From TrEMBL:
<feature type="domain" description="GmrSD restriction endonucleases N-terminal">
    <location>
        <begin position="12"/>
        <end position="216"/>
    </location>
</feature>
<dbReference type="Pfam" id="PF03235">
    <property type="entry name" value="GmrSD_N"/>
</dbReference>
<protein>
    <submittedName>
        <fullName>DUF262 domain-containing protein</fullName>
    </submittedName>
</protein>
<dbReference type="InterPro" id="IPR004919">
    <property type="entry name" value="GmrSD_N"/>
</dbReference>
Length: 596
């Protein structure tokens, strides 16, 4: 069986396909991940006639309709979205979205004398040797005669024939050939998914979520194109509130849809704890609603795949689109979203930087939506969501390739119930060996992105712990105000005694403290600055610390998991201090976990 066909098409034809919708490119692109210099290189390769890779499409599989006929779907873009976006940006002049969802223009300049392309900047803009923007010439907005005349008027000493040839060659870019690989519509979904994965093992790696997004954007029959907008608009509104007016002014059809009504609140909502991208939104909605974790399964179901008969049936496609729509609507629902964030914050995760695993947060939200749909009491939902989030962070449950793990967890929860599966997970992963040895070892780290350390900080926020050497300032307040993380054994002091950064930057050497305290301690060894603190308390002076009694000082050390040995400690005691504090931090995390 022929699995694909290969042919060449000029750039101009490819762009016309995009405009006509023959190839389904989402109306609102995912953020453009290429650097502007890569756009320049693409144009340069086209100009020189070099190959620029293939655009790969797959026509939606024919699905059996109720009347027995087969549908014929649009082509789904499998690979080449970034190249197509680059072409529309440089040649058509279309604005693109950067990674912060801000619209920007990429303008490519051309020097006919040297035949070089560059991203336009002030230097090229001021130089008469450079054509500031190739777009009007290639796009027929200015005649080639006028372009040549304008250039020669500013560069009177150049060879007229040379410039004429090179500007004509510039215009011919739109006639340069681009390879098109069209995968056969009869290929099953597993084969197409395998092709997709192999394609994206090199270069800018796209996930199966990109595959899903192209798939739904291509399906107008089941409303997939509107679902795509729901996901994109939600993600963009999270970081760009001004985009709300753009929707109401420029996409009135969507603005009148129930999807827009569901996310209108985002036009004024403001929270930076959980900022999901389109992959996260799909992940949560799919996991929660389908009790599955592999995006390849979602593509298959949206195509109407019957896993038993290996055929495609419209009823399955309709049901799958309906389920995905329900999942997405539940995701963006204001009550669901804000209650979930409240639960996460109440567990002590008051800042985005305390959650380094986005998939742990995603699964926690999927679990919240699932338990809520089952009608479980709110108190129980909160208990299980908090526990699951912390457990998954502590054991690194979703680090690395997580799809299979997510798939296993949601299926087990669906089959056994959350109470039984949670107990099973705790028995398997959170035994005494974990608390006494595994967690302590995990805290032997110099990275503040360490999951165990971040859970420890969350536990301090949960316990409303007072900052080191402070009478009333809470750690949670310092995190919100970007307060200082203080080295208990100052970094410069340890460095002076021969310690390397990896040694003195151990997380067990960190404590949140007020900036003024941190500055006054400077590079004093612990025994010296702690002696000063004690002397000030006895003299009723508050200079280094705001603590005014020895009892409060001892309590402050205890709640920050710092032993009294700090009063006598020098660099010679550093390693033993770290071991003791790691054990104390681990026990604090354990107590915190079982209080959730």
């Amino acid at each position: 069986m022929t699995k694909y066909s290969v042919h060449q098409q000029p750039v101009e034809t490819l762009l016309s396909w995009i405009k006509s919708g023959d190839v389904a490119i989402p109306e609102i692109q995912r953020p453009f991940v290429w650097k502007a210099s890569k756009v320049r290189d693409l144009i340069d390769s086209l100009y020189k006639g070099y190959p620029v890779g293939y655009i790969i499409t797959w026509r939606n599989p024919d699905v059996k309709l109720k009347d027995g006929t087969l549908s014929a779907g649009k082509k789904v873009l499998i690979d080449g979205q970034q190249r197509i976006t680059a072409l529309t940006a440089a040649i058509v002049g279309q604005r693109i979205l950067n990674k912060n969802y801000k619209e920007v223009k990429i303008i490519i300049a051309f020097n006919p004398i040297t035949e070089k392309f560059e991203v336009l900047n002030k230097a090229y803009e001021k130089s008469p040797e450079w054509i500031n923007n190739i777009n009007p010439i290639i796009n027929d907005e200015i005649s080639i005669t006028k372009a040549i005349r304008n250039y020669l008027s500013m560069n009177t000493e150049v060879d007229e024939d040379l410039i004429e040839d090179r500007i004509e060659n510039l215009k011919k870019i739109k006639n340069k050939q681009v390879g098109i690989i069209e995968l056969d519509h009869s290929l099953d979904i597993d084969t197409v998914t395998e092709i997709f994965i192999r394609i994206n093992q090199k270069g800018v790696v796209l996930s199966n979520a990109d595959f899903v997004m192209s798939k739904i954007a291509a399906d107008e029959i089941h409303g997939g194109n509107k679902m795509r907008k729901l996901v994109d608009y939600f993600c963009r509104l999270l970081v760009d509130k001004d985009f709300y007016k753009h929707i109401t002014d420029n996409d009135k059809a969507f603005a009148s849809h129930d999807y827009f009504k569901a996310l209108k609140w985002m036009g004024r909502g403001n929270d930076d704890l959980y900022i999901p991208n389109y992959i996260d939104v799909l992940r949560v909605a799919f996991t929660y609603k389908f009790n599955r974790g592999k995006f390849s399964d979602l593509v298959a179901l949206l195509s109407g795949r019957n896993f038993d008969t290996r055929t495609y049936e419209n009823e399955i496609a309709v049901k799958s689109y309906d389920l995905l729509s329900e999942g997405l609507m539940d995701f963006v629902n204001q009550t669901n979203y804000q209650r979930f964030l409240m639960i996460i914050k109440s567990a002590g995760f008051i800042s985005q930087k305390l959650i380094s695993s986005k998939n742990s947060l995603n699964f926690a939200y999927a679990l919240y939506l699932k338990l809520r749909s089952l009608g479980m009491p709110e108190a129980e939902i909160q208990h299980y969501v908090k526990r699951w989030l912390v457990m998954s962070l502590l054991i690194g449950r979703y680090s690395g390739s997580s799809e299979s793990t997510i798939d296993e967890d949601i299926k087990q929860i669906n089959e056994k119930g959350i109470a039984n599966y949670m107990e099973q997970m705790e028995l398997s992963y959170l035994g005494e060996g974990f608390w006494d040895f595994g967690l302590v070892n995990n805290l032997e780290s110099s990275s503040v992105n360490n999951n165990s350390y971040n859970v420890y900080i969350a536990s301090e926020c949960y316990n409303n712990t007072t900052a080191f050497l402070s009478k009333s300032m809470k750690i949670s307040s310092l995190i919100e105000q970007r307060g200082d993380i203080h080295h208990l054994f100052p970094a410069k002091y340890l460095k002076k005694h021969g310690y390397a950064p990896k040694q003195y930057n151990q997380v067990a050497n960190y404590a949140y403290t007020e900036q003024a305290t941190n500055i006054k301690i400077g590079m004093l060894p612990p025994n010296e600055y702690m002696s000063k603190v004690r002397e000030e308390i006895e003299s009723n002076i508050n200079n280094i610390s705001s603590i005014d009694s020895l009892n409060v000082l001892n309590e402050n050390l205890e709640i920050n998991q710092i032993s009294n040995s700090l009063f006598q400690a020098t660099h010679l005691d550093y390693e033993e201090f770290l071991k003791t504090r790691r054990n104390k931090m681990a026990m604090t995390i354990k107590e915190y976990y079982y209080k959730l």
